[in-house]
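Lab notes, practical 5.
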Amino acid sequence: MQHSPKVFSSKEVLVASRPGLLQLPSRMPIGKRPLALTRSSQSRCRRTPVRKGACPDFDARLGCSYNGGVLDPLHLSLQHEEVLPRGFLGRVGSTLSYLGRLVVLHLVTLSLILRLRIERALTVAQMAAVGVASLPVVAATTLLSGMVLGYHVAVQAGQLGVSPYAGWLVAETMCRELGPVLAAFVVAARAGSAMTAELGTMKVTEQIDALRALATDPVEYLVVPRYLAAVAMLPVLTFLGDVIGVLGGYVMAAITPQINEAVYFNAIPSHLEAWTVIAGVLKTVVFGMIIALVCCFEGITCRPQSEEVGRATTRSVVYCIVLVYVADVVLTAILYPG
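Output from the prediction step:
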């Protein structure tokens, strides 16, 4: 008895030609499929214990229930709104909704940090990217700002007859406002934009979905290291920027005939309080939180379109500048009471 030859489908031929390829359920949505999941990565997933809140939502065989979203388990509440708000009240509501999403992301990040779920190697690498790489730009910005401030203070102090206090005025201004704010702006423009572009590209190319497929929490792996790096390195950059700014004022005071450079530093030890320097550095801790949360949020919730990466990067820098100014007003009133 002759049997008719079996006709293989194209899918079966592909699997037979590539035995390492893992077959995924046909009912799985395309957007939920991982980029590249082989049998080796499948076995690694089985060996790795699945943690609560970080399970892949596509594969029920790993023994965990659906917990979907880019920011598990709060994917739907953290996405950008598709419908633009109308009217003044609509824009106010959209702003409050955006701030609420940032608060949710902050709470998730803090919960992971408190449970010591920290990728140490990635955190050190992000500290180098945020701190060491931003130091030349912060130094140049604060040096030139201190030189301009020192020149104006020297001229005005010479006219008013208070030349011995010129150095203290420059140091007070740099430590109170210019140093923290300028350092925050530089980090937001340089490191923050890089965070958004990197995470946005990962979102567009579905690498974040691949992390979830491998039982890795995207917030733990991507947001927490950048959050800790910004919070840790921005105060260091601010303190160095304060010192460099005061030295820049000294350079301009030395070439200005209204002030004797020998007395530039005389009034600083006796008039500059330690709390002024400490409070200025403490403000940057909050600034670092804002920069990390806004930039990571814009990147990790970027729409899966190539042009959206640039828009998300622009939004992140603008939002960081605005929120840093708002936080600076509030913190100044709290840390420097009348």
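Observations recorded by the TA: Confidence is low (pLDDT under 50) at residues 10-77. Residues 104-335 form one domain.
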